[in-house]
Amino acid sequence: MFENSSQELAYHKLLILYILDKIKMDLTNSQITQVILETEMMNYFSLQQLLSQLMESKFLTIYKDSNREYYSLTQKGLETLEYFLSRLPENITKRIDEYITSNKENLLADTQVKSSFVKQSNNEFIVNLRVIENQANLIDLNLNVSSEKQAKLICNNWKNNASYMYAEVIDLLIRDID
């Protein structure tokens, strides 16, 4: 299929860009790995090398949220994919599309509840708590707390009880108070 290894590398890079574009959400390294390995597109070590190269080329960017790193498609990556998309065989894109359709909920389930905090000063931390459904924020709450210990505790409690807490907040907000 490939005349040389540089064509193969370009092809595999396009596959990664295609997956991130098609799934319409940012993914962790383990989520990308899951898609690549379960669709048998390439091996783990090649994937890790290509992710690094895509970052260096500024086709992907990485950010941290809730102590997890997420890969995101950049505008440059999207434009490159759009330009070279025709080089991906239709049977391959179809296989990826089918995998994403049948497994997107499993991939999404891992990223529904998010919590993080940042230090503002010695005794001020901003905690961000979110619940996301279909890539839309159901709740996005920022709290100002006085210690890192409180911030960590709030983040852990949110991760373990977000659905209950969200329901309680909604109930309190819509309750008719006489």
Short description:
It comes from Romboutsia weinsteinii. This protein has 178 residues and is of the alpha+beta class.
Q: How would you sum up this structure, described in words?
A:
By secondary structure, this protein is an alpha+beta fold. It folds into 2 domains: 6-88, Arc Repressor Mutant, subunit A (Orthogonal Bundle), CATH 1.10.10; 112-174, no CATH class. Helices cover 56% and strands 24% of the residues. It is built from 6 helices and 6 strands. A 3-stranded antiparallel sheet has the order 1-3-2. A 3-stranded antiparallel sheet has the order 4-5-6, covered by helices on one side. Strand 4 and strand 5 (124-133) form a beta hairpin. Helix 1 packs across helix 3, helix 1 (5-23) packs across helix 4 and helix 1 (5-23) crosses helix 5 (90-109). The longest helix is centred in the last third of the chain and has 27 residues, at 148-174. The relative contact order is 0.11. Pfam families: DUF4364. This is DUF4364 family protein. InterPro entries: DUF4364, WH-like_DNA-bd_sf, WH_DNA-bd_sf.
